[in-house]
Amino acid sequence: MKHIFIGANGSIAQRHIRNLKLLRPDAEIVTVDIAGKADYDNISNVDIEGNCVYVCTPMELHIEHMNVAIYQEAHAIFIEKPLCAPSHRAEFIWRTVDRIPCVAVGYNHRFHPLFRELKSRSQDISYLHIYGTENLIGKYGPTALGTMASHSIDLALWLLGPVAQVQLEDYGSYCFIGLRHENKAASHIFASMKSSFRVATCTVLHLPVEDIEAVYRGEKTKYSPGREHYFVEPDNEMYLSEMKQWLEYIETGNIGNLCSFEDALSVQRVMAGN
Description:
This protein is of the alpha/beta class. The chain has helices at residues 11-23, 40-44, 62-71, 94-97, 113-120, 137-140, 148-160, 212-217, 236-252, 261-271; strands spanning 2-6, 28-32, 52-55, 76-79, 102-105, 127-133, 163-170, 174-181, 186-192, 199-205, 227-231.
């Protein structure tokens, strides 16, 4: 099976290619560079049918290039996060995606050791606060919701389950998101693209669910017993672990902790405020 990287000139594609070579030195890799637009002529020269496609283009092109892989009958599609820009809709390709045996979306923070540990005891988490900021405007543009915040939204849904209520304040380069989950737990997310330094933290409260309202009213402080605070430093290990799981998925059908297309749609709905 060939591994075809669409948008291979981007930094995330280069990281995936390096990790793929580490894990499968003999893998047949095909690269397709995209010059910031849907370059269908370039893609049409590649034999996609029955092969594995990685969509690593800018987010506004993800769905377009995923559709190319679907209609050319790829065996597997790995699409970088998010599925599409917050203002776009991805539901319209839901039925056609079912034709592809393996589809996953690159929410790789699920493979960070901290979040894997929290997942193992997520039933005890009643409140989650994720704060992330870094100066990425020059690289990704001033859209914190579709870049930094989408990772945090996926983590909140993965750890605490579906949402019953969404509160979203999007100011372009930074955003605030409040989620009330169906299990009565809550999560708050702040993301900014303006900081001159990188900060990524996660705060977890292990309190009875009924105590969360007391925290909001100020009757319990953020330093209550059961509070954990972490500094999160992403590194290549989580990307490598993601690639290991992806290769297992396309070889055995075990999706493991990878983000499914359906899970990624849930993230898009939160980004749309519903």
